[in-house]
Amino acid sequence: MKHNRIPVALVATIAVAGLSLTACSSSGGSKGGTSSKPSATSLASSTIKINAQPRSALKQGGTLNWAIDQYSTQWNYNQINGAEYSTDAVIEATEPVIFRVDPATQKVTYNPNYLTKTPSVTTVGGKQTVTYDINPKAKWSDGTPISYKDFAAQWQALNGKDAKYQIGSSTGYANITSVVAGTSDQQVVVTFDKNFGDWTSLFAPLYPAKYQSTPDQFNKGFLNTIPVTAGPFKIESMNATTKTVTVARDPAWWGDPAILDKIVFRAMTTDAAPGAFANGEVDYLNIGPDPSGVKQAQSRPDGEIREAAGPQFRHVTFNAKSPLLSDVKVRQALFQAIDRTAIANSDLKGLNWPALLLNNHFFMNNQEGYQDNAGDLGKYNPTAAKAALDAAGWKMSGQYRQKDGKTLELTFVYPNGTAVSKNESVLLQAMFAAVGVKLDISAVPSDDFFDKYVQPGKFDLTAFSWLGNAWPVSSNFSIYQTPVGSNNFQNFAWTNDPNVDTLMNKSIADLDHTTAIADANAADKAIWQEAGVFPLYQRADIYGAKKTLANLGAPQDQDEVVYENIGFTK
């Protein structure tokens, strides 16, 4: 339920106002390795594997060891370096998430732990106005009541007006003109200057006012620490040496008490995690499209594979800020030099999952609104790629192309210890060589991948996945919007097209469902032409889980996890 998408070394997808996956509920886990792959049309019936159980069926207490792919330094999810899966997994256990998403229907409802009723949406003076009534029991761990001040401070930090706030996205917040108290400090009245259909994606997670009222507080208040909480769990310990964060049941929590005593989040590379699961060191992990990882995980007698069609996609991002990729014609040519089918089949080899190429930046194959907008740029055509590079002035000189005495030599950066990324780099290297482009491969420390390489643009090409949610367009807005000054939000491709901004703005402001879809697809067609983010395929959510683990699995996005209900069956 967030205004921006979560990057993961292994994941990706899209969101549009009010759109949802066509899903059917399933409560069971599944063993991998069945004899036939699910078809594209059957994916909609396999979107949830969480071993859903009532609280009464669970043992009281216990510790869940949860593998994450990074030990974060920035724990403010809304800060540019904070919007990452590992950060989100921890934060949503400890901070307010005021709306919940039903994993089966993707319906968004208010969280009664933080709000007393569904917020009212009215039009006052021609302006969209949303009124939130805060649960009077809700308070921060320092004793301060949650109030309109927290909402107001978060809006001021995230509205994009002060560049000193290093934010991941201003989507939705930029549409707000005021956040004030209503009849009391526990009533919040939010007035929009422009309609925002995905208003339920805002203020989640919510942070305390005193840690975001100034740029310094916002950027540094949750740096290397989580000082204040207001969730079913509180921080017990954070250890950068062992790369673990331990959260414990908070006795001051006013809602249903957490079933578990503790959750220990353990950061480890995606290559190491399956072995740790097989050895019983962790109970839950995101395996990703890794056949060897699945095989390792399957060796655990009391474990199982939970897989489902996730709202995520694998992609290659081209850095338009790089001198050799600043020409859109070069980027378009390189799109056509990539054989996505070969990459998908190689990435997914040995997995019980079809290769579903993705030709849309907003909608998944099994999502309402999906249409193929790729055109010729989505078709593998090395002959056309060569001709386009010739036309752009890059002529063959020996093995590689040159222009003005420079070789067309690019660098692909990926997180060390991520097998799927390494596999993609080798395949891309060969594909590019076939059209006269030299591709160097650079493996960087996993913990540094996003903060020190992707976000500051220290790469020519890279690949990872975007993990989606219930708001397809607004959650993707920051990935494709024009950078403002030095702030590229999550537009790691650094593309710049005012027409894309206009079309996306129209879509997220549309209150008519059909119109919103049409405008999102119009924006998508323009995004394809910018040739910054090249979708590869819709990724399967593949998790390893202890068989008795309940109410957690695949593809359960963090917005759908009710942390206090996670536990182990009796």
UniProtKB/TrEMBL annotation:
> What are the UniProt keywords, alphabetically?
Signal
Q: Which PROSITE patterns match?
A: PROKAR_LIPOPROTEIN
A Pfam family annotated for this UniProt entry: SBP_bac_5
Gene3D superfamilies, per the entry: Dipeptide-binding Protein, Domain 1 (3.90.76.10), Dipeptide-binding Protein, Domain 3 (3.10.105.10), Periplasmic binding protein-like II (3.40.190.10)
Signal as a keyword? Answer: yes
Q: Where does the Solute-binding protein family domain start and stop, copy by copy?
A: 125-487
Q: What is this protein called?
A: ABC transporter family substrate-binding protein
Q: Which organism is it from?
A: Streptacidiphilus alkalitolerans
